[in-house]
Every structure is written in structure tokens, then in C-alpha cells.
């Protein structure tokens, strides 16, 4: 299951080797983690490297604070390639977090044996990875939804906070319960196991260089396989950082919330 990360680490589009190296170094420096390995670039430093560094730093530190000026500058510089670049930036940002989380859980991460120069980063991340993680069922639907909603608010994703998964509602989810997530430590409704999972979510998002206590807390309530699934769920949900960074997180409904069901293939199905 943890090997779902390996194909993302292997991504190295030939035209974006320099972008990959810059974002992997920058994001890791910002979070205080070891960067993912990358294929060494052969071309000299480009004039876009400075803006990439600035954007990647903000993307990693707090994506909700990306400014319209930063967004428009990135889009103007990279045009049609911007989604692929954002996907690579996300892997550069969240890959080390997940690797650190898995290490804290005592689970090894397998590094790639060769670079993937063919797969488009957005396809690898937003289609293949997210669906594979969504299809995992080691956690109950309510726990999965509680984890998702915490990540949605931490990244200030307007779309994600407007969605509710039907299976979780059928499993006992409700708006009063979900409101408890904001102040989960004081909640009398969320279980000790859910609180441990939420501490781990917060650690992956905000303090990824200090995960040991949160990881130990998760393992006190969940199996290793479930803890790995929680870790991958956090990464899957955090792909909302791409939408937030690029300004594409507008809700699909003007008021209230929209229901969807996570399909057997791990992809959302809207009614």
C-alpha cells in the first residue's frame, strides 16, 4: 500500500527536470524534511527559477496564502504546462511528508528503480494515485470523511468544505459531529481514535518534521495498515492544494453542501 508513493517519486518529465529539482529542494527546505530524489538537470539556471522558488515556498508553508499575483505570474510563465508543474510541486511538497510519516510508523518507503519520463504528472497524481487511495477500505467511511474535512479546512479549500460523502453520513456522520472537528481536542463527540487520527493529520500538514508523537498516538488506536491508509488519505485529500494554489477551488453549489459517493474505483460520483 505504501508503494503507491513510489510512482510519484519516479516522475521526471524531460521538459521539467529542472522544475522538478527546484521544487523538490525548495519544498523540502521549507518543511525541514529530506527532499525526494530527483534526476539531475543538465540545463543552466533559468529566469523562472526565482518565481518557482517563491511559489513553492508559499505552496508548502500555507497554500491558502498564495496571492493572486503569484498565481498569475506562475500561469503566465508556464501557460499550458502549469497543471503539470503544480502536480510536480505537490509531489515535491507532500511526498517528503508522507515518507516521514511512514517512517515514523515503522513502514519503509521504496524508492523508484528508474525515472518515469513518460507519464504526465497530473495524470499520475490526480487520476491514478487519488483513485487508488480512494479505493482503499481499511478505514470506515466516517473516519475517512473526518480526515478529509480536517484537511479541507486546513488548506482552506472552498470546494472540499462544501462536499459531504454519502457513505459517511450513512455511517453516522452529521453536521453537528463535523462541526466538532474544528476544536476536536475539546470534543465530547469525537472518539479518542478519531482525535489521534486528527492530531496526525495536523502534524503531517503543519509540523511534518516532528511526527513521532502523533504517529505513536495513531498506532495506539489503529493497526499499521490503517495508519498507512490514514497517511495516504491525508495526501489524497491534500491534492486540494493544487486547486487552491491555482484558484480552482470554487464550490459547485452556491449555498449549503453537495453530496457525493466515493465509488468502488476510488473516484467520486455526484448525483
From TrEMBL:
UniProtKB keywords: Oxidoreductase, Peroxidase
Keyword Oxidoreductase: yes
UniProt-recorded Gene Ontology molecular function terms: peroxidase activity
Gene3D superfamilies: AhpD-like
Domain of life (superkingdom): Bacteria
InterPro entries: AhpD-like
The name this protein goes by in its record: Alkylhydroperoxidase family enzyme
Amino acid at each position: 500500500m505504501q508503494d503507491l508513493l513510489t510512482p510519484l517519486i519516479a516522475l521526471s518529465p524531460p521538459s521539467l527536470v529542472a522544475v522538478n529539482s527546484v521544487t523538490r529542494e525548495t519544498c523540502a527546505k521549507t518543511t525541514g524534511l529530506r527532499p525526494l530524489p530527483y534526476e539531475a538537470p543538465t540545463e543552466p539556471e533559468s529566469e523562472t527559477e526565482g518565481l518557482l522558488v517563491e511559489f513553492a515556498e508559499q505552496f508548502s508553508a500555507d497554500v491558502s496564502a498564495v496571492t493572486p499575483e503569484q498565481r498569475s505570474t506562475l500561469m503566465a510563465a508556464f501557460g499550458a504546462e502549469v497543471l503539470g508543474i503544480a502536480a510536480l510541486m505537490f509531489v515535491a511538497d507532500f511526498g517528503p511528508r508522507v515518507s516521514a510519516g511512514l517512517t515514523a510508523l515503522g513502514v519503509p518507503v521504496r524508492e523508484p528503480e528508474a525515472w518515469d519520463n513518460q507519464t504526465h504528472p497530473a495524470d499520475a497524481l490526480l487520476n491514478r494515485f487519488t483513485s487508488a487511495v480512494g479505493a482503499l477500505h481499511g478505514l470506515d467511511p466516517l473516519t475517512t470523511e473526518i480526515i478529509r474535512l480536517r484537511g479541507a479546512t486546513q488548506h482552506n479549500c472552498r470546494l472540499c468544505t462544501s462536499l459531504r460523502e454519502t457513505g459517511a453520513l450513512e455511517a453516522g456522520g452529521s453536521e453537528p459531529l463535523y462541526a466538532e472537528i474544528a476544536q476536536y481536542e475539546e470534543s465530547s463527540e469525537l472518539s479518542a481514535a478519531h482525535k489521534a487520527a486528527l492530531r496526525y493529520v495536523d502534524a503531517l500538514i503543519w509540523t511534518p518534521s516532528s511526527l513521532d508523537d502523533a504517529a505513536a498516538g495513531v498506532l495506539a488506536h489503529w493497526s499499521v495498515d490503517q495508519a498507512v491508509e490514514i497517511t495516504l488519505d491525508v495526501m489524497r485529500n491534500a491534492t486540494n492544494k493544487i486547486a487552491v494554489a491555482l484558484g480552482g477551488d470554487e464550490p459547485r453549489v452556491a449555498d449549503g453542501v453537495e453530496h457525493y459517493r466515493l465509488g468502488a474505483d476510488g473516484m467520486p460520483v455526484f448525483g
